[in-house]
Amino acid sequence: MAKVVQITAENFETEVIQASETRAVAVLFSSAEYPDCAPYSQLLGSLSTSMDFTLGVVSCDDRENMRLIQAFRVQSVPEVHVVSKGEIGDVIQGVLPEADLKKRLEKFFVSDEARMMMEIEEAIAQKNFDEALPALDAALKNAPDDKKLQLLWAKASLGLGDTEKAKEILKKFTEADDQYREAKSLLELLDFHAEAAKKDVLGKEAIVYQQACILAAGEQFEEALQAFLNLYAEAPEWNDGAAKKAMLTLFGVLGPKHELTWKYRAKLNTMMFI
Question: What span, in angstroms and rounded, lies between the C-alpha atoms of 167 and 181?
């Protein structure tokens, strides 16, 4: 449970060392003489509530805490030491922006649900879709309306080549959803995402095509169009004219009036009729 505790030599063993055996404790070394310390202490107190951890505060102004300060080899204040299972897991020196501080602390203080979400996102980033999907199925049983989980499920399904199931989920997102923009992009670029997720692609043309699909899926449209055009120039009939079809799909995504549509449609037409 989140709490803020003033740490002294008397309660250090109980509140830090023993407590850290079950859950890490963040220990802040602070001083009233340094103006950065008070707002930083407030920020850490707020994070201890939202992230559910114990914040121990050691006053460097109290001479009785000198042994603790020396034991932790404190270089400057404010300074945060994260103690996990009786050992120092991380030292955060100076004042970090909230986002950076939170990222450092998340290695130690995340809920089981948040940890599971991080593991799923990491599995998808590493293209371990067969690992991510069962975890997502289990998570969605407990939270079937969670839009973030639904989006990750669609990504994992795409990675496994199940575009129809991914499409079914993606079509359910509305403009009111925080993930709508990403879902809409996935839907429009469905085939490119599916191709980009493939593993062990063999053959020169297939590798070039996948790289172009990765660009398209990442909405680097001009680079993708140029890559598809180059492939078409070298192998126009490869895979039933896949490069040309990909360009036509991107023209549809961009719209007929987009400058890239005009530019690359002209280049494609020129190449087709040479």
Answer: 15
Domain tally for the chain? 3
257 near 263, Cβ under 8 Å? no
Q: What is the mean pLDDT of the chain?
A: 91
Q: How far apart are CA 115 and CA 131, in angstroms?
A: 15
Q: Is 232 left (phi over 0), alpha (psi -120 to 50) or beta?
A: alpha
Among 49, 79, 105, the domain-final residue is 105
φ, ψ for residue 52 (rounded to 5)? 60, 65
Whether the Cβ atoms of residue 65 and residue 57 lie closer than 8 Å to each other = no
Region 65-74: what's the mean pLDDT? 94
Strands 79-84 and 87-93: antiparallel
Task: Give residue 70's domain range.
Answer: 3-105
Supply the pLDDT for residue 261. Answer: 94
Burial-class residue 112 by CB neighbours within 10 Å (0-12, 13-18, 19+): exposed
Alpha-carbon span 122 to 120, nearest angstrom: 5
- pLDDT attached to residue 260: 95
Element (H, E) at 102: helix 98-105
What's the farthest any 2 CA atoms get from each other in the chain?
Answer: 86
Is-contact 171 203, C-beta < 8 A?
no
Q: Which of 251, 197, 198 is nearest to 222 (CA)?
A: 251
Report how far Cα 96 is from the mean position of its chain's Cα atoms.
20
